[in-house]
Structures are given as structure tokens and as C-alpha cells.
Amino acid sequence: MANVAVIGAQWGDEGKGKIVDWLAERADVVVRFQGGHNAGHTLVVGEKVYKLSLLPSGIVRGTPSVIGNGVVLDPWALKAEVEKLRGQGVEVTPDTLKIADTCPLILPFHRDLDGLREDASGSGKIGTTRRGIGPAYEDKVGRRAIRVCDLAHLDDLGPQLDRLAAHHDALRAGFGEPPIDRAALVEELREIAGFVLPFAEPVWRMLHEARGRGRRILFEGAQGVLLDIDHGTYPFVTSSNTVAGTAAAGTGLGPNAVGFVLGIAKAYTTRVGSGPFPTEQDNETGERLGTRGHEFGTVTGRKRRCGWLDAVLLRQSAAVSGITGIALTKIDVLDGFETVSICTGYRLRGETLDYYPSNAQDQAAVEPVYETMPGWSESTAGARSWADLPAQAIKYIRRIEELIQCPVALVSTSPERDDTILVRDPFAD
């Protein structure tokens, strides 16, 4: 049986939560491998709705869940999320949740810096969630990070605090902020350490053992490929690699452990925050997509920008992330459109492109080339087989497959877990 990596194939918010929940029931372990608590997943299980930002989606079903070393961890956000889930009747214990002891911590001054930078950036705003994720990754790469394992050695933090203060105090002074209060920081960490440390261990050992025993591992990505720090619409991206290859480095398993790569994509396109969006429909069509699709960010509550499916970007995502099959979500949102459009290429200063350019100015300047198809008036909501779909909806899906050069492995037709058309079982490979 294959392991499965689930990643967003667009700008995030593609409906990964439902798909991961659907797969998690058959997985033996679910592991998050990058990102922070800026990545929201909404799970609908029966009558209950769970909104997760940091915890792996498998946690609500009791599937052993792991936060890998590629994640940056806000310990206070972790505590709040665990307590919220416990209030909804979900048991979260060291038996069901493991946290890599090498995860870098997101600290209060990371959140401060994130907000101060955004406020000072004017038209250059990235549109971050202001939760400190970017500054925490910077400290990781800058070899200044305090990690989960350090919570057990708080009396020995002097050299790390020296490195942190040398960097951050200068930045804070530039914004008119006082230096880091080192004593207060250590006390805050001491207070939270007792909550975090019972979950902490070298998770790579547990994952290697699980793999050796033939256990099914589900790798859960956050955000989407178009927000990848290397392959996304830079600089309007997140601070980590979101492609499937990161599942290896972000967990301590080798690249041949990743298995089937399932890319999640909406039947249209959305984006939260700033940055280029070639197929955006800032008009009645966009409003209709947003209203029907309930397009508001899980973490921020921000209204998502909406537009037609961009097959060029989706093909690019599939290529750079090695996507094996696409899970196409929210096809039901397109019900009732007289016509539907797909972007098949771009025009840039008289030239036709079949890829998205790298330069930010070129990205903002491209004009989409559309192919328009007849829509369908029948409902696809709740369909669970091809026979339940209108003929035009099937033609639309098949055309997407042709354009992105990647097969559709499953189709989601509502937020309900069982409203899914399975074409190819990712775990069966």
C-alpha cells in the first residue's frame, strides 16, 4: 500500500481538510510537514464542524497525528487549539499527538515583527496573517531559533538568547520598540513548557518504525504550491516550501517514502490577500463564485478573491510538485452557470506564454487566454458517482485533465465527506 501526500495545488483553501479527513480514516498516521498556524483546515464530521490551524486533521478521528520538524510551532496557539478541541469532545493526548522536538518555536516578538513590517510596507504588503510564521522561519535559517527540545533546558538558553537579541533588538529599535525582555520571555516559556513537552519526541524514529511495519502514512501539507517560497508567486508567498518534496525533509523520512501525491484543486480559483491573480473576476461572476462557495479564510476570515480555473498555473503546480492525481473540489459551485471558462495560456506584451513567468511585474501584467465551454443547469451537489454528474460537468472535468496533463483521482461535490467520486484510490498504489 502507498503512503499519500496531500498538498494544495493552487493558492491554498482548496478544501484539503475534507480530503485529508476522508483519507485519515484509512491512514495509520497523519503528519503535518510544513507551515504554521497560518494554515486553516475546516472539517465537517457529521453535525460537528472543526476548525484547525496547527494540528493535523487526523486528530479529530483519533488517528495518531504528528507535527513534523518542518513546522514552526506557536506553543500558546497549540495549547489554545488543543483546549478548543477538548471542549468539542476530542481527546488530544501524548498517545494521539506527537510533536517533533526539533520544531522551531514562534515567539511573541516574531508576531510583533510580522505586524510591524506589514504596517510599514505600504504598497509592498505581502498580506501575511501576522502570526509570526515568516520571522520564525528566518530565525530557523539564521540558526537563532529556540526549538521545542530547548523547553527542557531553559536555564541553558543564554547563548541562543544572545544570538536572538543581537538580531531582533536592532530590528525592534528601528521600529521604535524596546529590546526583548529576556527574563520575561524565559518565564513565559517556563509556563508553557509543561504543556508542550509531554507531546515532544524525535518523531522521525516513530515514523521510520511505522513505515517499517507497513503502516499507511498520510502527509498533510498546508497552503498551496502557488504559495511555495521557491515555486510560488514570489514575493506574495508563504515562508516555507509547500511542494510535496518537502514531506521528506519536514518529517525525517526519505523522498521515496512520500508515495502518491494528491493535489487538491478547486473547480475554479481563489486567493486570499495580496498578489497577482490572472483569472480573478472582480465582478458579478466573482461575487457569485464567492457567495456560492462560502469563500472566507478559515484562519483570517478574510474574503477570498475568486476567478475562473487557471489551467496554466495548475499544470505548473502538478509539474513542480510531482502530483500523481488531482482531487477536484467544489464542482457544485459552478452549477447553474450558463458558460464556464478555463484559462489556457497568457499574453504578455504581444507574446503568448504557456507558463507563468517568474518576475513579479510580468506576473501582474499577463492577460489570460480563455476557453469557454457550455455550463450545466442540473445540480452536482452530493453526487457520488459519474452517473450522478451532468454530461457537461464531466466534459469540463475531462478538459481540465487534458489541459493540466494530470488525471483527476477524485471529485468532491459538497463539504460532506461521503459526497466524493473516487476515480483512483491513492492508498491502493
From TrEMBL:
Its main location: cytoplasm. CDD domains: AdSS. Pathway: Purine metabolism; AMP biosynthesis via de novo pathway; AMP from IMP: step 1/2. GO terms for cellular component: cytoplasm. It comes from the Bacteria. GTP binds at residues 12-18, 40-42, 304, 330-332, 412-414. Its EC number is 6.3.4.4. GO terms for biological process: 'de novo' AMP biosynthetic process; IMP metabolic process. This is Adenylosuccinate synthetase.
